[in-house]
Specification:
Structural class: alpha+beta
Number of domains: 2
Distance between the termini: 89 Å
Keywords: Coiled coil, Repeat, WD repeat
Shape: globular
CATH topology of the largest domain: Methylamine Dehydrogenase, Chain H
Radius of gyration: 30 Å
InterPro entries: WD40/YVTN_repeat-like_dom_sf (IPR015943), WD40_PAC1 (IPR020472), WD40_repeat_CS (IPR019775), WD40_repeat_dom_sf (IPR036322), WD40_rpt (IPR001680), WDR55/POC1 (IPR050505)
CATH class of the largest domain: Mainly Beta
């Protein structure tokens, strides 16, 4: 069990794991989409409560709410310059876009065009300045997602017809079609250089297509339930998915494996988004919560939300320097000794309680770092292993309890369905019993009027 889910980490690897930055509360229904401001000033969110919210990420954290929609808001996005926000529901006051609910919306990289997808089976492109329709494409069923490529020469779309289609914006024709999914395609997304197209589906799969060679290059059994959203890291080296199994997963595309699994939502993890440079990411769920995370594993150094207090600089004395050097050398020896005793970790599993508290794993990190001089190192190592095993058992029990509750709900649904079927069968049997006397009377009448019936047909033939 320890080999599969080892929760011991190297101290030099702990700083590379994502950490929860803040939790945003205010929506009253499922979060449907998230979008970071290009300058990391704020984050926009849309939800099924019909509200579009813009949350300031720096202090003082204010929230602005837009109540212009009359129904559920399915998507929201900042324009590339951060001056506009596009959001769509079934019908829009600004742009009378589609004849059915709009599922997705995205700006082109230059901010001049807008692409939308809808349940009217169409993908439409609009000019932002005059808000006029430019051209469109047609699916055979509802379209859940449509996105521009980086150079605005291609559009990818996917939907309920299970097809992922790449459209040529110049010729206005279909360029490539992929029929790899066996379920509804919820999201399509181009990589930052537009050489890879990703798609996620109701069939629990994540698939990556090479746009140039027109073939599948990576395939992942991503989640235990539907994969609802997909985003590429700006570096193009990682992808993030959110699923109906309440998990958010980060995939290392270079190594072709799962890098992180994050727990924080009570219910489906419906959407996710990276910031412009990828130093932060956010997730939203059916619990109406928005979790903002520090990425940590890749940092551009161009984004920061930490507001550290100013420190007064003072010149250190020679005695303090000597004491500091001795303490640092002792700490290095302790760290090296602990690192040599801790095994390597293949996959990091992170947990958050969604209440803006400290990461559970950070508590374990602190317990690893704390050492007393009067306690042997072997005893400390054994205690740390026991602590890690106890945490593992606790989390495993929590997961089993969740599965048991899910199974109980499914059993209740099956029992209800069986009860309804049994009642229907009884009603049908009663109807059959009630009809038997009528059938006997009809047979008696047929025997009495048999001659007339035959005569009638003969007369008709004559």
């Amino acid at each position: 069990m320890n080999q599969l889910y080892n929760l011991n980490f190297k101290l030099n690897e702990m700083q590379d794991d994502p950490t929860l930055f803040t939790t945003l509360k205010g929506h009253k229904d499922t979060i449907t989409a998230l979008s970071f401001h290009p300058g990391l000033k704020s984050i926009a969110s849309s939800a099924n409560d019909g509200v579009v919210s813009v949350w300031q990420l720096k202090q003082p954290r204010k929230v602005y709410r837009f109540m212009g929609h009359k129904g559920q808001v399915s998507d929201v996005q900042f324009s590339p310059n951060g001056l506009l926000i596009a959001s769509f529901e079934g019908s829009s006051v600004s742009i009378k876009a589609h004849s059915a609910p709009v599922r997705s919306v995205q700006f082109s990289c230059d901010g001049q065009l807008l692409v939308s997808s809808s349940d009217d089976k169409s993908v439409k492109v609009w000019s932002v300045n005059d808000r006029k329709f430019q051209y469109g494409f047609q699916h055979t069923n509802w379209v859940r997602s449509a996105v521009f490529s980086q150079d605005v020469r291609l559009i990818a779309s996917g939907g309920d017809d299970r097809a992922v289609i790449i459209w040529d914006c110049d010729s206005k024709k279909e360029a490539q079609r992929y029929n790899e999914h066996i379920g509804v395609v919820y999201k399509v997304q181009f990589s930052p250089d537009s050489t890879i197209l990703g798609s996620c589906s109701h069939d629990k799969k994540l698939k990556l297509f090479d746009v140039r060679s027109k073939r599948v290059i990576q395939h992942y059994d991503a989640h235990a339930d539907s994969v609802l959203d997909l985003k590429f890291h700006p570096s193009g080296q990682f992808a993030m998915t959110s699923g109906a199994d309440s998990k958010v997963k980060v995939w290392d595309l270079r190594m072709g494996k799962l890098a992180y699994t994050l727990y924080g939502h009570n219910g489906q993890a419906t959407t996710c988004a990276f910031s412009n440079h990828g130093d932060y990411f956010a997730t939203g769920g059916s619990d109406s919560m928005i979790l903002v995370w520090n990425t940590n594993w890749v940092c551009s150094g161009q984004e920061s939300l930490d507001e550290k207090p100013k420190q007064v600089k003072s010149k250190p004395t020679q005695q303090s320097l000597t004491q500091g050097q001795q303490q640092s050398s002792q700490q290095k020896e302790n760290v090296q000794q602990t690192n040599s005793q801790l095994p390597k970790q293949k996959e990091t599993v992170l947990y958050s309680n969604a209440d803006n508290s400290l990461h559970k794993k950070s508590e374990f990190n602190q317990s690893v770092q704390l050492q007393k001089e009067d306690v042997p190192a072997e005893v400390i190592t054994q205690l740390d292993n026991i602590s890690g095993q106890l945490e593992l058992i606790t989390r495993t029990l929590q997961a089993l309890e969740q599965r048991v509750s899910n199974n109980e709900q499914q059993i209740c649904r099956l029992n209800l369905a069986l009860t309804r079927d049994f009642e229907r069968s009884e009603q049908i049997q009663n109807q059959i019993y009630d009809l038997r006397p009528l059938e006997e009377q009809v047979q008696d009448q047929d025997e009495e009027e048999n001659v007339n019936y035959i005569k009638f047909h003969r007369a008709a033939n004559n």
